[in-house]
Structure formats: C-alpha cells, structure tokens
Automatic annotation (TrEMBL):
InterPro entries: ATP_synth_I (IPR005598), ATP_synth_I_Bacilli (IPR039072). It comes from the Bacteria. It comes from Planococcus rifietoensis. The chain crosses the membrane at residues 12-28, 34-53, 74-92, 98-118. The keyword Membrane applies. This is ATP synthase I.
Length: 123
C-alpha cells in the first residue's frame, strides 16, 4: 500500500491541476463568483488535508512509541471550514457560498476516488 506522503503528494498534484482549471473558469466564464468559491474552498481543503496528514503521522509515531495519542486536528479542520463560510459570507458579492463549501470537500472526494481506484487495481 502507498504511504501517506505518497498519497498526499498525488492528491496535491491533482488539486493543483483542478485549481488551475478553476482559475481559468474564473477568468473566462460568466460565473466568476462560483469559480472564486471553488478556488477558496479548494485551497482550504488542501490545507485541511495537510493538517490531517501531519496529524496522522504524529498519531502513527505515538502509537509506535506507545505514548498517549492526541486528537487528529478535527477542531482545526472544523475551524478552517468555518473560516471558508465566513469568508464567503463576508465577500458574498465575489464568492459563491455553496461552491466554496463544495470546494472545501473536493480533496476528500478525490481521496475517496483515489483509494477506490487503487484497491480496484491492486486487489
């Protein structure tokens, strides 16, 4: 099975490609607010994935050493989700709220699809 860092690197590369498509959509289509929301949400989604990967590595080390395990950063990821909504509400004329929330979930959806594809290929 792939290591956590390899999975994260693959997802990050894919997210950068998706972000480039969103930037093109923001600049070219008549829906810049929707694409701005997708961009903001996706950036925070990448940040949330980074937090999750970092915390999972700490979790693995703590389990291997037999020490106490702290949280996996759920509160921090929840706070960044609240920040996305706050930014979308604050700049409502420039950022579409629903697309910001969808953008926030894109990395998790990609992770799910990537793992399904991996298991279909290797099992």
């Amino acid at each position: 099975m792939d290591g956590l860092q390899e999975i994260y690197k693959r997802l990050k590369r894919l997210m950068y490609f998706i972000l480039a498509v969103f930037v093109l959509g923001w600049g070219v289509t008549p829906y810049p607010e929707v694409f701005a929301g997708l961009i903001v949400g996706s950036l925070f989604g990448i940040y949330n994935m980074w937090i999750l990967v970092r915390r999972m590595e700490k979790f693995d080390r703590a389990v291997a050493e037999g020490s106490k395990v702290r949280s996996l950063g759920t509160a921090l990821r929840f706070a960044s989700g609240v920040a996305v909504v706050a930014i979308a509400i604050l700049f409502a004329e420039h950022i579409h709220l629903v697309s910001a929330v969808i953008g926030l979930m894109i990395p998790y959806g990609l992770l799910l699809v990537e793992r399904i594809v991996y298991h279909m290929k290797h099992h």
